[in-house]
Amino acid sequence: MVSPKVIPYLEPLEDIEARARKNFGDCTGLYLHYIIREFSRYWRGLQKREDPFLAGKVWDQLNFYFDQKLREIATIRLEMEWLIFEYDNEQLFDPEHEPGPFWRT
User: Is 94 within 8 Å of 86 (Cβ atoms)?
Assistant: First the structure.
């Protein structure tokens, strides 16, 4: 669970992601580049502040949630079904043949 002290520092990540989606939503490469650059810029900005709330475990939690958010974004965007749809605006599989899990026979 996110500490109430951490929440205000995480809210800008949602704004960054919303801007990325609006400006680069149809291009995963540009979208991810923007997210990584802006998340990094925001992180460094937080490090330069002399904010008394940003110390000890709060930093640890912030690091954890930044990392978790980046992984979530990458997992969603670097998924074959999304990438192929982005490529040619069509579904990954023919609607008449949507394969099941290959490990089941």
Answer: no
The first and second tokens of residue 36, run together, are 């990584």
What pLDDT digit, counting tens, does each position of 73-103 carry?
988 888 877 788 778 888 777 777 777 766 6
Residue numbers of the domain that contains 55? 7-88
Asked if residue 72 is part of any domain, the answer here is yes
8: three-class secondary structure by DSSP:
helix
* Model confidence, pTM: 0.78
- Distance, in Å, from the CA atom of 77 to the CA atom of 20, rounded to the nearest integer, reads 12
CB distance 82 to 25 below 8 Å: no
Q: Is residue 102 part of a domain?
A: no
Asked if residue 103 belongs to a domain, the reply is no
